[in-house]
Amino acid sequence: MIEKVLARQDGVITAAQAREAGLTHRVIERRVNSGAWRRVARGLYVAVDRPFTDEARARCAVWSTGSGVLSGAGAAFWLGLTTYLVPVIEVTVPRTASGRSASGVRRRRRTLDPADVVELRGVRVTRLELTVLEASTVLGQQLVDRQLQRRATLPALRRAQDRNARRHGHRVAERYLRAAEGGARSEAERLAVRLLTAGGLTGWEVNHPFGGYVIDIAFPALRLAIEIDGWAFHSDSTVFHRDRRRQNVLVRHWTVLRYIWHDLTHRPDEVLAEIRRFVTRVQ
């Protein structure tokens, strides 16, 4: 039975679980003294006959705190949103929790709403929405974008954000969320305008009408359309299909270059160079 528990839990086991499986305190100590098990915290052990995986490391981080909840980028790993476990794992513990953080573990002290916590594979972890918001402060706004296209919804993200209004990283997540709720497109357009202006490019105009649609930024003489995609359009079926129809109309008459918020904030020089290359080539 003990082997089944270890296999199910990535080689990690607590003293309480070992006793439930039939091991006495003396037997547990014998396994530790013989080197079969390694004690990683009080009442927490790993079997040394198997690799110490990222999954095992995440379990140890949470279980070493007793009542902790895997949070942030570590929670993103546990939920399958990323494939890489960060070196320092964040665990949220109650404000009244005692003890110090183990090596490689960062404790965040606050009381989580039960609506933001779920147990998955024996580990308490923040739910998808809070995980996306908290992990985005480390992994970037592209995590929000990606999950809006997959599993998350804007209303659920907003509810999680409002329930956790004063947590660490709240302001960064709020900026990403407001962008996703509709501000990204307009703010990204302003960034694009500033980029073109600073780059000395001329001959363009904003909100150029064509074929019953409006082009975000157009070089009419060159038939070059610069389209700025907001995040939320990916997760809204109606907007998505309208955007596809609009794209089909434009590409019959224009060269279309598309950018998102991440492009304009993380690689603006590359964006400007790409636009400049096209402008120079056709002038």
TrEMBL record:
Q: Where are the transmembrane segments?
A: none
- Which N-terminal residues, if any, form the signal peptide? none
Chain ranges of the AbiEi antitoxin N-terminal domain? 2-46
Q: Where is the Restriction endonuclease type II-like domain?
A: 207-277
User: What name goes with this protein?
Assistant: DUF559 domain-containing protein
| Provenance organism | Rhodococcoides corynebacterioides
Lineage summary: Bacteria, Bacillati, Actinomycetota, Actinomycetes, Mycobacteriales
